[in-house]
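Q: What does the predicted 3D structure of Putative glycosyltransferase look like?
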Amino acid sequence: MSRPTRVLFDAGDYSLSPQDVGGIGLRIAELAETMAEECQVRVLGPAASSSIDMGEAQYVGGVRAWPELLAETDAVLFFDMADRARLEDAVAARRLVISENVAPIEHLEYPSLLVRPDPAAAYRPLVADYQRQLQVSHHFLCRSEVERATLIANLCLTGRLAPRDIQMSRTLAHLVSLVPIGFSDRSASAMAAVAPDPLADFLWTGGIWSFYDPMLLVDAVAVCRDRGRRADTAFLYARRKADNAELVGDLASRIKELRIEDRVTLVDEPLPHDRRDAHLKAARAFISVAEPGAENQTCVRLRLRDSRLHGIPMVVDDFGGTANEVRRSGPGTVLSEATPQALATVLLHYLDDAPRRSGPNPAFRYQTTLQGFLSWLRTTTL
Protein backbone atom coordinates (compact mmCIF):
# COMPACT_ATOMS: atom_id res chain seq x y z
CA MET A 1 0.00 0.00 0.00
CA SER A 2 1.48 3.37 -1.01
CA ARG A 3 2.12 5.95 1.66
CA PRO A 4 0.01 9.15 1.76
CA THR A 5 1.33 12.22 -0.03
CA ARG A 6 3.37 14.39 2.30
CA VAL A 7 2.33 18.04 2.09
CA LEU A 8 3.97 21.02 3.78
CA PHE A 9 1.98 24.23 4.20
CA ASP A 10 4.16 27.33 4.48
CA ALA A 11 2.05 29.82 6.44
CA GLY A 12 4.73 32.49 6.34
CA ASP A 13 4.11 35.14 8.98
CA TYR A 14 0.40 34.44 9.27
CA SER A 15 -0.62 33.49 12.80
CA LEU A 16 -2.55 30.28 13.40
CA SER A 17 -2.73 30.87 17.14
CA PRO A 18 -6.18 30.47 18.72
CA GLN A 19 -5.59 33.88 20.29
CA ASP A 20 -5.34 35.92 17.10
CA VAL A 21 -5.75 33.84 13.93
CA GLY A 22 -6.97 35.99 11.04
CA GLY A 23 -8.45 35.51 7.58
CA ILE A 24 -5.59 33.91 5.64
CA GLY A 25 -4.35 32.02 8.69
CA LEU A 26 -7.81 30.56 9.13
CA ARG A 27 -7.99 29.52 5.48
CA ILE A 28 -4.59 27.83 5.77
CA ALA A 29 -5.69 25.97 8.90
CA GLU A 30 -8.98 24.80 7.42
CA LEU A 31 -7.39 23.65 4.16
CA ALA A 32 -4.68 21.82 6.11
CA GLU A 33 -7.25 20.13 8.33
CA THR A 34 -9.25 18.96 5.33
CA MET A 35 -6.27 17.72 3.32
CA ALA A 36 -4.96 15.85 6.37
CA GLU A 37 -7.89 13.47 6.00
CA GLU A 38 -5.95 11.79 3.18
CA CYS A 39 -2.47 13.38 3.17
CA GLN A 40 0.28 13.68 5.76
CA VAL A 41 0.14 17.42 6.43
CA ARG A 42 2.49 19.69 8.33
CA VAL A 43 2.07 23.44 8.70
CA LEU A 44 5.10 25.69 9.17
CA GLY A 45 4.20 28.96 10.84
CA PRO A 46 5.44 31.53 13.33
CA ALA A 47 6.87 30.29 16.59
CA ALA A 48 3.87 29.69 18.83
CA SER A 49 2.90 27.44 21.69
CA SER A 50 -0.21 26.19 19.89
CA SER A 51 -2.42 26.55 16.84
CA ILE A 52 -6.14 26.30 16.32
CA ASP A 53 -7.45 22.76 15.98
CA MET A 54 -6.41 21.34 12.60
CA GLY A 55 -7.36 17.73 13.16
CA GLU A 56 -4.59 15.41 11.97
CA ALA A 57 -2.46 18.22 10.53
CA GLN A 58 0.67 18.94 12.58
CA TYR A 59 1.73 22.50 13.40
CA VAL A 60 5.43 23.32 13.51
CA GLY A 61 6.39 26.75 14.80
CA GLY A 62 9.57 28.52 13.77
CA VAL A 63 11.50 28.64 10.50
CA ARG A 64 14.48 26.73 11.90
CA ALA A 65 12.50 23.58 11.17
CA TRP A 66 12.28 24.41 7.46
CA PRO A 67 15.23 22.32 6.14
CA GLU A 68 14.08 19.18 7.94
CA LEU A 69 10.45 19.68 6.91
CA LEU A 70 11.40 20.27 3.28
CA ALA A 71 13.48 17.09 3.21
CA GLU A 72 10.49 15.08 4.42
CA THR A 73 7.78 16.40 2.09
CA ASP A 74 6.55 15.76 -1.45
CA ALA A 75 4.80 19.10 -2.02
CA VAL A 76 4.90 22.60 -0.59
CA LEU A 77 1.96 25.00 -0.52
CA PHE A 78 2.76 28.72 -0.40
CA PHE A 79 0.21 31.41 0.41
CA ASP A 80 0.29 35.02 -0.73
CA MET A 81 3.80 36.35 -1.28
CA ALA A 82 5.99 33.32 -0.66
CA ASP A 83 9.26 33.72 1.19
CA ARG A 84 11.65 33.92 -1.79
CA ALA A 85 14.45 31.92 -0.17
CA ARG A 86 12.14 29.06 0.84
CA LEU A 87 10.49 29.10 -2.58
CA GLU A 88 13.89 28.67 -4.22
CA ASP A 89 14.76 25.91 -1.74
CA ALA A 90 11.63 24.00 -2.74
CA VAL A 91 12.48 24.38 -6.43
CA ALA A 92 16.07 23.23 -5.90
CA ALA A 93 14.86 20.23 -3.89
CA ARG A 94 12.53 19.24 -6.77
CA ARG A 95 9.39 19.36 -4.70
CA LEU A 96 5.95 20.02 -6.12
CA VAL A 97 5.33 23.74 -5.65
CA ILE A 98 1.71 24.85 -5.23
CA SER A 99 0.72 28.48 -4.75
CA GLU A 100 -2.36 30.39 -3.68
CA ASN A 101 -1.63 33.98 -4.53
CA VAL A 102 -2.87 37.05 -6.37
CA ALA A 103 -1.01 39.88 -8.04
CA PRO A 104 0.31 42.37 -5.44
CA ILE A 105 -2.21 45.09 -6.28
CA GLU A 106 -3.30 45.99 -2.75
CA HIS A 107 0.32 46.78 -1.91
CA LEU A 108 0.10 49.80 -4.20
CA GLU A 109 -2.05 51.47 -1.52
CA TYR A 110 0.00 50.53 1.54
CA PRO A 111 1.10 53.66 3.42
CA SER A 112 4.36 51.91 4.35
CA LEU A 113 5.17 51.65 0.64
CA LEU A 114 3.97 55.12 -0.34
CA VAL A 115 6.16 56.88 2.25
CA ARG A 116 9.33 55.32 0.83
CA PRO A 117 11.68 57.70 -1.02
CA ASP A 118 11.00 55.80 -4.26
CA PRO A 119 7.73 53.82 -3.98
CA ALA A 120 8.09 52.43 -7.51
CA ALA A 121 11.51 51.00 -6.72
CA ALA A 122 10.22 49.52 -3.48
CA TYR A 123 7.32 47.90 -5.33
CA ARG A 124 9.38 46.21 -8.06
CA PRO A 125 10.75 43.40 -5.83
CA LEU A 126 7.18 42.44 -4.90
CA VAL A 127 6.31 42.11 -8.56
CA ALA A 128 9.50 40.14 -9.24
CA ASP A 129 8.70 37.72 -6.41
CA TYR A 130 5.16 37.25 -7.74
CA GLN A 131 6.47 36.62 -11.25
CA ARG A 132 8.92 34.04 -9.94
CA GLN A 133 6.12 32.26 -8.10
CA LEU A 134 4.15 32.10 -11.36
CA GLN A 135 7.16 30.70 -13.19
CA VAL A 136 8.04 27.86 -10.81
CA SER A 137 4.72 26.71 -9.33
CA HIS A 138 3.37 23.44 -10.69
CA HIS A 139 -0.20 24.17 -9.66
CA PHE A 140 -2.30 27.04 -8.31
CA LEU A 141 -5.27 27.31 -5.96
CA CYS A 142 -7.72 30.16 -6.55
CA ARG A 143 -10.29 31.51 -4.13
CA SER A 144 -12.75 32.86 -6.71
CA GLU A 145 -13.60 32.96 -10.40
CA VAL A 146 -12.25 36.49 -10.83
CA GLU A 147 -8.94 35.53 -9.23
CA ARG A 148 -8.77 32.48 -11.48
CA ALA A 149 -9.32 34.66 -14.55
CA THR A 150 -6.59 37.14 -13.61
CA LEU A 151 -4.21 34.29 -12.77
CA ILE A 152 -4.67 32.67 -16.18
CA ALA A 153 -3.96 35.98 -17.91
CA ASN A 154 -0.81 36.40 -15.82
CA LEU A 155 0.32 32.85 -16.62
CA CYS A 156 0.04 33.70 -20.29
CA LEU A 157 2.12 36.85 -19.85
CA THR A 158 4.86 34.96 -18.00
CA GLY A 159 5.13 32.30 -20.71
CA ARG A 160 3.57 29.50 -18.69
CA LEU A 161 0.89 28.61 -21.25
CA ALA A 162 1.38 26.72 -24.48
CA PRO A 163 -0.95 24.96 -26.99
CA ARG A 164 -0.37 21.65 -25.20
CA ASP A 165 -1.98 23.09 -22.06
CA ILE A 166 -5.28 23.74 -23.78
CA GLN A 167 -5.01 20.30 -25.42
CA MET A 168 -4.61 18.75 -21.97
CA SER A 169 -7.52 20.71 -20.50
CA ARG A 170 -9.48 23.61 -21.96
CA THR A 171 -10.16 24.72 -18.38
CA LEU A 172 -6.48 24.29 -17.42
CA ALA A 173 -7.49 21.92 -14.64
CA HIS A 174 -3.94 20.52 -14.57
CA LEU A 175 -2.64 23.99 -13.64
CA VAL A 176 -5.39 25.69 -11.66
CA SER A 177 -7.92 24.47 -9.10
CA LEU A 178 -10.80 26.66 -7.96
CA VAL A 179 -11.28 26.25 -4.20
CA PRO A 180 -13.81 28.95 -3.24
CA ILE A 181 -13.63 30.67 0.12
CA GLY A 182 -15.38 28.29 2.48
CA PHE A 183 -14.92 26.30 5.68
CA SER A 184 -14.00 22.90 7.07
CA ASP A 185 -16.28 20.37 8.73
CA ARG A 186 -14.45 20.83 12.02
CA SER A 187 -15.19 24.57 11.92
CA ALA A 188 -18.84 23.86 11.19
CA SER A 189 -19.03 21.53 14.20
CA ALA A 190 -17.32 24.08 16.44
CA MET A 191 -19.67 26.81 15.28
CA ALA A 192 -22.71 24.65 15.96
CA ALA A 193 -21.54 23.95 19.51
CA VAL A 194 -20.64 27.50 20.57
CA ALA A 195 -23.12 29.57 22.55
CA PRO A 196 -23.97 32.98 21.03
CA ASP A 197 -22.37 35.93 22.82
CA PRO A 198 -23.79 39.24 21.56
CA LEU A 199 -21.29 42.02 21.00
CA ALA A 200 -23.20 44.12 18.47
CA ASP A 201 -26.00 43.71 15.95
CA PHE A 202 -23.63 44.34 13.04
CA LEU A 203 -20.03 43.21 12.77
CA TRP A 204 -17.23 44.38 10.53
CA THR A 205 -15.47 41.03 10.54
CA GLY A 206 -12.33 41.80 8.53
CA GLY A 207 -9.43 44.21 8.68
CA ILE A 208 -9.49 47.97 8.26
CA TRP A 209 -7.45 48.85 5.19
CA SER A 210 -7.20 51.75 2.78
CA PHE A 211 -9.17 50.00 0.02
CA TYR A 212 -12.17 49.56 2.35
CA ASP A 213 -14.69 52.21 3.38
CA PRO A 214 -15.29 51.78 7.12
CA MET A 215 -16.42 55.41 7.42
CA LEU A 216 -19.52 54.49 5.44
CA LEU A 217 -20.62 52.11 8.18
CA VAL A 218 -19.93 54.63 10.95
CA ASP A 219 -21.91 57.29 9.12
CA ALA A 220 -24.77 54.82 8.58
CA VAL A 221 -24.94 54.13 12.33
CA ALA A 222 -25.31 57.89 12.86
CA VAL A 223 -28.09 58.00 10.24
CA CYS A 224 -29.91 55.22 12.11
CA ARG A 225 -29.61 57.24 15.31
CA ASP A 226 -31.06 60.28 13.55
CA ARG A 227 -33.96 58.07 12.48
CA GLY A 228 -34.54 57.20 16.12
CA ARG A 229 -33.00 53.72 16.01
CA ARG A 230 -29.96 51.93 17.41
CA ALA A 231 -27.76 49.90 15.08
CA ASP A 232 -24.97 48.81 17.40
CA THR A 233 -21.83 47.93 15.47
CA ALA A 234 -18.38 46.51 16.22
CA PHE A 235 -15.16 46.44 14.21
CA LEU A 236 -13.48 43.19 15.24
CA TYR A 237 -9.97 44.03 14.01
CA ALA A 238 -9.22 47.62 14.96
CA ARG A 239 -5.69 47.05 16.21
CA ARG A 240 -3.36 49.67 14.78
CA LYS A 241 -0.63 48.49 12.44
CA ALA A 242 1.79 50.30 10.17
CA ASP A 243 -0.57 50.22 7.19
CA ASN A 244 -3.83 51.07 8.95
CA ALA A 245 -2.90 53.25 11.95
CA GLU A 246 -3.94 56.52 10.33
CA LEU A 247 -7.23 55.10 9.06
CA VAL A 248 -8.11 53.55 12.42
CA GLY A 249 -7.29 56.86 14.09
CA ASP A 250 -9.53 58.73 11.66
CA LEU A 251 -12.29 56.19 12.32
CA ALA A 252 -12.05 56.73 16.09
CA SER A 253 -12.17 60.49 15.56
CA ARG A 254 -15.25 60.19 13.34
CA ILE A 255 -17.06 58.08 15.94
CA LYS A 256 -16.31 60.71 18.59
CA GLU A 257 -17.29 63.59 16.30
CA LEU A 258 -20.65 61.96 15.58
CA ARG A 259 -21.15 61.18 19.30
CA ILE A 260 -21.88 57.52 18.73
CA GLU A 261 -19.23 56.05 21.04
CA ASP A 262 -22.00 54.10 22.77
CA ARG A 263 -23.03 52.49 19.47
CA VAL A 264 -19.73 51.64 17.76
CA THR A 265 -17.05 49.45 19.33
CA LEU A 266 -13.48 49.29 18.05
CA VAL A 267 -11.99 45.99 19.23
CA ASP A 268 -8.30 46.83 19.54
CA GLU A 269 -7.13 43.73 21.42
CA PRO A 270 -6.54 40.25 19.96
CA LEU A 271 -9.83 38.38 19.68
CA PRO A 272 -9.59 34.67 20.54
CA HIS A 273 -11.04 32.46 17.84
CA ASP A 274 -13.71 30.84 20.03
CA ARG A 275 -14.94 34.23 21.28
CA ARG A 276 -15.05 35.48 17.72
CA ASP A 277 -17.28 32.58 16.71
CA ALA A 278 -19.61 33.35 19.62
CA HIS A 279 -19.87 37.02 18.61
CA LEU A 280 -20.48 36.11 14.97
CA LYS A 281 -23.22 33.68 15.87
CA ALA A 282 -25.15 36.39 17.73
CA ALA A 283 -24.97 39.05 14.98
CA ARG A 284 -27.73 40.05 12.61
CA ALA A 285 -25.45 40.76 9.66
CA PHE A 286 -21.81 41.17 8.70
CA ILE A 287 -20.60 44.29 6.92
CA SER A 288 -17.81 44.66 4.37
CA VAL A 289 -17.96 47.78 2.22
CA ALA A 290 -15.12 49.06 0.09
CA GLU A 291 -14.04 51.79 -2.28
CA PRO A 292 -14.08 51.28 -6.05
CA GLY A 293 -10.63 50.23 -7.17
CA ALA A 294 -8.40 47.66 -8.80
CA GLU A 295 -7.94 45.58 -5.64
CA ASN A 296 -11.67 45.14 -5.09
CA GLN A 297 -12.29 44.44 -8.78
CA THR A 298 -9.74 41.61 -8.93
CA CYS A 299 -10.18 39.87 -5.56
CA VAL A 300 -12.89 38.42 -3.37
CA ARG A 301 -12.83 39.16 0.36
CA LEU A 302 -12.00 36.31 2.70
CA ARG A 303 -14.73 37.40 5.06
CA LEU A 304 -17.28 35.63 2.86
CA ARG A 305 -16.16 32.60 4.83
CA ASP A 306 -18.04 33.81 7.91
CA SER A 307 -21.29 34.32 6.04
CA ARG A 308 -21.07 30.96 4.29
CA LEU A 309 -20.32 29.17 7.55
CA HIS A 310 -22.86 30.86 9.82
CA GLY A 311 -25.59 31.47 7.25
CA ILE A 312 -25.68 35.11 8.35
CA PRO A 313 -26.12 37.75 5.63
CA MET A 314 -23.19 39.86 4.42
CA VAL A 315 -23.79 43.46 3.34
CA VAL A 316 -21.33 44.52 0.63
CA ASP A 317 -20.75 47.32 -1.86
CA ASP A 318 -21.38 46.90 -5.56
CA PHE A 319 -17.72 47.15 -6.60
CA GLY A 320 -16.16 44.01 -7.98
CA GLY A 321 -16.00 40.29 -7.36
CA THR A 322 -17.31 40.16 -3.80
CA ALA A 323 -20.63 41.66 -4.89
CA ASN A 324 -20.92 39.08 -7.66
CA GLU A 325 -20.31 36.27 -5.17
CA VAL A 326 -23.02 37.55 -2.79
CA ARG A 327 -25.49 37.92 -5.67
CA ARG A 328 -24.80 34.41 -6.89
CA SER A 329 -24.54 32.50 -3.62
CA GLY A 330 -25.85 34.76 -0.83
CA PRO A 331 -26.83 35.23 1.83
CA GLY A 332 -26.71 38.98 1.95
CA THR A 333 -27.38 42.32 0.31
CA VAL A 334 -25.47 44.25 -2.34
CA LEU A 335 -25.91 47.98 -1.79
CA SER A 336 -27.62 49.75 -4.66
CA GLU A 337 -25.60 52.85 -3.84
CA ALA A 338 -22.70 53.42 -1.48
CA THR A 339 -24.25 56.09 0.73
CA PRO A 340 -24.80 56.19 4.51
CA GLN A 341 -28.54 56.53 3.91
CA ALA A 342 -28.70 53.41 1.74
CA LEU A 343 -26.63 51.38 4.18
CA ALA A 344 -28.71 52.62 7.13
CA THR A 345 -31.87 51.44 5.37
CA VAL A 346 -30.35 47.97 4.97
CA LEU A 347 -29.25 47.87 8.62
CA LEU A 348 -32.75 48.76 9.80
CA HIS A 349 -34.20 46.10 7.50
CA TYR A 350 -32.07 43.45 9.20
CA LEU A 351 -33.07 44.79 12.62
CA ASP A 352 -36.78 44.62 11.80
CA ASP A 353 -36.92 41.57 9.58
CA ALA A 354 -33.94 39.33 10.24
CA PRO A 355 -34.03 36.40 7.78
CA ARG A 356 -34.03 32.83 8.97
CA ARG A 357 -30.45 31.62 9.23
CA SER A 358 -29.66 28.91 6.76
CA GLY A 359 -26.63 27.48 8.57
CA PRO A 360 -23.48 26.32 6.78
CA ASN A 361 -23.76 26.31 3.00
CA PRO A 362 -22.67 22.79 1.96
CA ALA A 363 -21.53 24.04 -1.46
CA PHE A 364 -18.53 25.66 0.26
CA ARG A 365 -17.31 22.75 2.39
CA TYR A 366 -13.61 22.27 1.73
CA GLN A 367 -14.26 18.53 1.96
CA THR A 368 -16.16 19.02 -1.31
CA THR A 369 -14.35 21.85 -3.09
CA LEU A 370 -10.85 20.41 -2.61
CA GLN A 371 -11.60 17.20 -4.48
CA GLY A 372 -10.44 18.43 -7.88
CA PHE A 373 -7.11 19.57 -6.48
CA LEU A 374 -6.64 16.38 -4.47
CA SER A 375 -7.30 14.36 -7.62
CA TRP A 376 -4.47 16.25 -9.34
CA LEU A 377 -2.19 15.78 -6.32
CA ARG A 378 -2.80 12.03 -6.18
CA THR A 379 -1.67 11.55 -9.76
CA THR A 380 1.23 14.03 -10.01
CA THR A 381 4.87 13.46 -9.22
CA LEU A 382 8.14 15.03 -10.33
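A (community wiki): The C-alpha coordinates above were generated from the sequence. The chain has two domains: 6-184+365-378, 185-363. The chain has 17 helices and 13 strands.
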